[in-house]
Amino acid sequence: MRTGGDDIAQAFAYNLAILDSAEAGNRALALCWIFHLLGDIHQPLHSSALFNERRFPKGDMGGNAITVKGIGVLHVAWDRSTYMESNKGWEFDQHAAFVQELVKAHKKVGELAQKDEEFEDWLNESHELAMMVGYPKELLEAIRESKIEKYGFGNPLSVKLDKAFTKQWKAKIYETSLQQITKAGYRLAFLLEEHF
């Protein structure tokens, strides 16, 4: 299916328009894309990439070309921050209980987020989080001090940061992810109410 453009904002707008105009099969497919794209844009490293002529001339692929000791591949750490051994194999009711916990813990964040109706606002918010939490200054300093070489999927840059900082940063990634999941849920609920 054509997504209507080269970037996520164009693809989202294209699929949103299909919800109001196409036959049922195309609407169902568009709805799947909306779920996917809305979720993706709330993960900060889906909105950003580091570029550096000597290290990342093609970008760091949203953190996929950086491995941090104690965290792993940076992008994967964000994608999987709330997926742990403890919730592997959960049944539906366990996922539902987790959602209720998120709503309870982050209700104010979710309700405020629901007022932001524009996809561009979500994208900008995610980009800001990438700059503040996704690529902290400690990481950027370690990258600057690393050996000059071109890095990518086959040759990721491996950095080691202070152990205490890494632990705090990992906790911040987890907490930010929980808030972003909550925001995405509230925004999706609002969008579905609007269209259905």
In a nutshell, what does this entry contain?
61% of the residues lie in helices and 4% in strands.
Compile the SSE list and pairings.
Elements: H1 8-21, H2 24-41, E1 66-68, E2 72-73, H3 74-79, H4 92-114, H5 119-134, H6 137-145, E3 157-159, H7 163-195
Parallel strand pairs: 1-3
Antiparallel strand pairs: 1-2
Helix pairs in contact: 1-2, 4-7
Silhouette = globular
How large is the count of helical segments?
7
Domains counted in the coordinates: how many?
Answer: 1
Write down the Rg: 18 Å
What is the H/E string?
Answer: HHEEHHHHEH
Unreliable segments (pLDDT under 50, ≥5 consecutive)?
none
Biggest sheet features = 3 strands, mixed
* Structural class by secondary-structure content: mainly alpha
Helix content: 55-70%
Strand content: under 5%
Q: Give the end-to-end Cα distance, rounded to a whole number of Å.
A: 22 Å
Number of strands: 3
Strand order of the largest sheet: 2-1-3
Would you tell me the overall average pLDDT?
A: 90
Describe this structure in words.
- This protein has 7 helices and 3 strands.
- Strands 2-1-3 form a 3-stranded mixed β-sheet.
- The chain is globular.
- A hairpin with a 3-residue loop joins strand 1 (66-68) and strand 2.
- It has 196 residues and is mainly alpha-helical.
- The relative contact order is 0.17.
- Helix 1 (8-21) runs antiparallel to helix 2 (24-41) and helix 4 (92-114) crosses helix 7.
- The chain has helices at 8-21, 24-41, 74-79, 92-114, 119-134, 137-145, 163-195, and strands spanning 66-68, 72-73, 157-159.
- The protein starts with 7 loop residues before the first helix and ends with a helix.
- The longest helix has 33 residues, at 163-195.
- The protein has one domain (42-195).
